[in-house]
Amino acid sequence: MDDRLLKPYSPKDTEERTYALWNDSGYFNPDTCARDGFVDDAKPPFSMMLPPPNVTGTLHMGHAAMLVIEDILARYARMQGRRTLWLPGTDHAAIATQSKVEGIIAKEEGKNRHDLGREELLRRVEQFAQESHDTIVGQVRAMGSSVDWSREAFTLDDARNRAVRTAFKKMYDDGLIYRGYRVVNWDPKGQTTVSDEEVVYREETGVLYTFRYAKDFPISVATTRPETKVGDTAVAVHPDDVRYQKYIGQTFAVTFAGVPLSIKIVGDLAVDPLFGTGAVGVTPAHSMTDFEIGKRHDLPVIPVINEYSKMSVESELVQGKKVKEARALIVEWLKSQGLLEKEEALQQNIPVAERTGGVIEQLPKLQWFVNVRKEFTLAHSTIEGIPSGSTTTLKDLMRTVVENGQIEILPNRFAKIYFHWINNLNDWCISRQIWYGHRIPVWYRGEGKDQEIYAGIEAPEGENWEQDPDTLDTWFSSGLWTFSTLGWPDQTEDLKRFHPTSVIETGYDILFFWVARMILMSGYLLGEPPFKTVYMHGLVRDSKGRKMSKSLGNIIDPLTMIEKYGADAARMSLIVGAPAGNDTNLSEDKIRAYKLFANKLWNVARFVLTNTEGTDLSSAPQLTERDTEILLELDRVTKETSEHIDAFRLHLAAEGLYHYVWHTFADIIIEESKKRIMEGASDDAAAARFVLYRILKTTLTLLHPFMPFETEELWGIMQSAHPEAHTSGTDRILMVSPWPYR
Fold first, then answer.
1. Are 28 and 82 in contact (CB under 8 A)?
2. Which of 84, 172, 291, 487 is the most buried if burial means most Cβ atoms within 10 Å?
3. Minimal CA–CA distance to 687: which of 702, 676, 698, 699?
4. DSSP 8-state secondary structure symbol assigned to residue 735
């Protein structure tokens, strides 16, 4: 007997050695698999891009779940003989990474980015990003991820930078990228714009104030932010509201908190006549909704709050004050003037920058945008319903590929959420006022009306050109991920073979951040969807269903669990009971339970190999009716497991194998076989041994995508013990051995 079977299974003694075996074999690389005859090119290739983890720290259990799901899919496809590419990489995560480093510098040195300067800050950020990258790579390996390290990418490397600049220039030349003065989400703490998707909401108790601008003003309005009213240029009412119809079109001159205002009454369908007084003050400079109302009615845009969340209006009462202080001062002024009619407490959602925690201000800024409504001609297209040479918009393109079924979103309930988001999609602000990231590839020369603007992949020739100081939204570069990683803009063999990719697997919380952006970019730049299936996984919560956080002290660290129980136990705990799109509760007890399963599997293998030692298993002996029944049941399990994985029901596949191995194979079949082996006739004992070995070999194969380390270790022991039973040769590791059901 192999000495390894004399001891209990030890993940510590196995996992690092086994990963080295896989890595050294080269079989993470689909080209090597094809070279050595493990690929059937009659079958469609399988390709998948690892959602690149942010280089802001270490991976958590959510990342671990992602890695497990994707590794199952990749190992399954590889064992089916498909040319399988799982491409890894990391994301520079511009705002998140720079904010993290700036926080460290502020805490340790008491300095900000301007104290250091752009060059020194970028050096510090890049050093931090590299250290974080190295940690992440170690964690990805520890989970057993069979990614092709030879193709590893980084969203800020030279190849991706070329792709980003090529995409920007094409969109700029087609008029889909423009520079405009619009109201954006501004983070006063991070001193940059942020997208709608990077804004989170904090529930607070606020006050709804009902007031008049002046005693003789004919309409009362309601607001939660009186400080912005010094920037009002209109009052909007519903055009059918009989209370106010006679005032529509009139303009009133008032002095509000020391500020002269010209208030025009406008009728607009965006107003809800049932909310508050049915009339709202319009502040085009500090509300995206009001900005749109202002455009419809040609209203002036008057900023009264600056980038530091301080009042910039010329008023002795509030100038230079922080907005909260200004709010209190204006409320007191309203009371003193007898203009405040009502105060009502209400719950409101305060917008906050996800990365810095700064309370968002909506400010008018000159920024770069992607126009999602502008029509353009799609030169080449494989999108059903939008043929080559037809005219479309980015919004229509993003909607069509999901409507026509070329992209399937799992679970399908997320498709409805996706369509709702698309229908309400506004132009995408892509410029950020930070230093780390892809610099906007635009250069300026001169000023005013005579200013020259050049957008290009390389800097323009000539003197006095200055590049735009801003960087691009990180989702612009990660939106190119499925094809920039395959060599685009060059037409590489990888791009032809592996795009569109087979599946993108990611958390449902970044459906709009990332999945939608990839659909936009791939549809526009390649004329095809970026992937065929979107698999959305849920959040990993603690045993009580709470989100894991430092403040609650309930974080389960994946590396700690691997150290204690092994990667296979951690993997199984993250899959069983975790259907697509559903949050899953995780506890250390659950992980420990699957370590017991790993031990059970090891003991089962020891029994089978001990009792088949010295037996020739190259051909099947005469089987009994019960043996045939057992093998038919094994075939059923094999077929069912394959069907579950094909349908992305990974949790059911894992659960079914767990129950089969423990309760059918170990508890029933092995127990039945003991008497046959010890006391039966030689033919009957031979049949029992053959069936046991056949089940062990098949179940190890089926379990391999889920528990790769232990199954690979046992496979090697089995091949050494019974080379005659492995017709593919003793040198073929389990990772590239044939899947038993095709």
1. no
2. 84
3. 676
4. G
Boundaries of every domain in the chain: 200-356
Six-digit token pair at 52?
């690149």
Distance of alpha carbon 618 from the chain centroid: 48
186 and 307 Cβ atoms separated by less than 8 Å: yes
C-beta separation of 167 from 331 below 8 A: no
CB of 162 closer than 8 Å to CB of 65: no
- The separation between CA 292 and the C-alpha centre of its own chain, rounded to angstroms, equals 31
Ramachandran category for residue 448: left, alpha or beta (phi over 0 → left; psi -120 to 50 → alpha): left
Q: What's the CA gap between 344 and 348, in Å, rounded?
A: 12
Nearest to 654 by CA among 707, 718, 595: 707
Q: What distance in Å separates the CA atoms of residue 446 and residue 645, rounded to the nearest whole number?
A: 60
E strand or H helix at 697: helix 682-703
φ and ψ of 709, to 5 deg: -70, -55
Give tens-digit pLDDT for 54-113: 998 778 888 999 999 999 999 999 999 999 999 999 999 888 899 899 999 999 999 999
Structure tokens at 542: 């603690």
User: C-alpha distances in angstroms, 354 versus 136, 540, 628?
Assistant: 22, 19, 60
Residue 379: partners with Cβ closer than 8 Å, 6 or more residues away: 388, 389, 527
Q: Check if the beta carbon of residue 299 is closer than 8 Å to that of residue 293.
A: yes
CB-based burial label for 483 (10 Å; 0-12, 13-18, 19+): buried
Angle at 639 between CA 78 and CA 413, to 5 degrees: 80
Q: How far apart are CA 291 and CA 410, in angstroms?
A: 37
What's the pLDDT tens digit per position in 351-370?
A: 999 888 999 999 999 999 99
Q: What is the DSSP letter of 405?
A: S
Quick: pLDDT tens for 303-353. 999 999 999 999 999 999 999 999 999 999 999 999 999 999 999 999 999
Architecture of domain 200-356: Alpha-Beta Complex (3.90)
d(CA 439, CA 460): 15
Measured distance CA(731)–CA(738) in Å, rounded: 13
Is pTM beyond 0.90? Reply is yes
| CA gap 703, 700 in Å, rounded | 5
Residues 6+ apart with CB under 8 A from 205: 345, 346, 347, 348
Q: What is the DSSP string of 530-563?
A: SEEEEEEE--EE-TTSPBP-TTTT----HHHHHH
CB atoms inside a 10 Å sphere around CB 583: 14
Contacts of 17 (CB under 8 A, 6+ apart): none
